[in-house]
């Protein structure tokens, strides 16, 4: 199970694990493939990120790494302030079988991903280049009921194993969860127009007039008790 807090907590383990994925820093426009590239351990060529045979992948203790263009993650791409369809999303999957106390073998899957996106800085409204990294373990059980029950108590995400799994979607979900709630530059100023507006507000606040004086003004002169101004 994943608590909401996890998405903003630093994941130190992810950094080192992802270092191997990031062979170059992705700031080299035009040099990335527009289609996914995938490297497998010992598995056959039938590997499909959108239809992963989790059980076979885990049984084989398989590893797969790949690079998929941002265009293939449409919900994540929408978060970018500039269109960047070729921006590479690096990912890595690792599968293994682990035995429960009762002796049953359960498939486990580690999914990691990293990319950089220009998000909108919530202070100056300009793009802020934001690294996005994910590192999430998944454990697979037989039924939805079991998954729901066990997910409550588990650190990992517990999913029901029900046919091929769309890992591209799972990776996208993870990255959406890893987005900063409030993207900000380390150092920036609000835009000039916004600054003036804010100053204007402050001025209006400090010279706020007495409502009775204002009412008197409307009646054509200074307030004079109950007297009619006419
Ligand atoms: Zn900013």
UniProtKB/TrEMBL annotation:
The keyword Transcription regulation does not apply. GO terms for cellular component: cytosol. Residues 195-230 are annotated as: Disordered. Belongs to the DUF177 domain family. This is Large ribosomal RNA subunit accumulation protein YceD. The keyword rRNA processing does not apply. Plays a role in synthesis, processing and/or stability of 23S rRNA. Pfam families: YceD. GO terms for biological process: ribosome biogenesis. Keywords: Ribosome biogenesis. It comes from Corticibacter populi.
């Amino acid at each position: 199970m994943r608590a909401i807090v996890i998405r903003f907590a630093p994941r130190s383990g992810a950094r080192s694990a992802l270092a191997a994925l990031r062979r170059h820093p992705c700031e080299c426009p035009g040099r990335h493939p527009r289609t996914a590239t995938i490297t497998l351990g010992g598995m056959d060529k039938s590997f499909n990120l959108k239809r992963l045979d989790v059980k076979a992948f885990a049984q084989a203790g398989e590893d797969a790494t790949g690079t998929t263009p941002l265009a293939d993650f449409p919900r994540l791409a929408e978060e970018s302030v500039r269109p960047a369809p070729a921006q590479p999303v690096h990912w890595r999957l690792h599968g293994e079988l682990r035995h429960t106390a009762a002796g049953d073998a359960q498939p486990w899957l580690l999914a990691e991903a990293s990319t950089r996106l220009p998000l909108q800085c919530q202070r100056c409204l300009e793009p802020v280049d934001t690294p996005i990294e994910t590192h999430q373990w998944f454990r697979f059980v037989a039924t939805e009921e079991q998954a729901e029950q066990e997910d409550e108590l588990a650190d990992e995400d517990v999913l029901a194993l029900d046919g091929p799994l769309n890992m591209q979607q799972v990776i996208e979900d993870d990255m959406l969860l890893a987005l900063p709630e409030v993207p900000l530059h380390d150092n920036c100023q609000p835009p000039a127009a916004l600054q003036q507006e804010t100053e204007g507000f402050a001025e209006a606040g400090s010279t706020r007039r007495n409502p009775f004086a204002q009412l008197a003004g409307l009646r054509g002169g200074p307030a004079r008790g109950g007297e009619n101004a006419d």
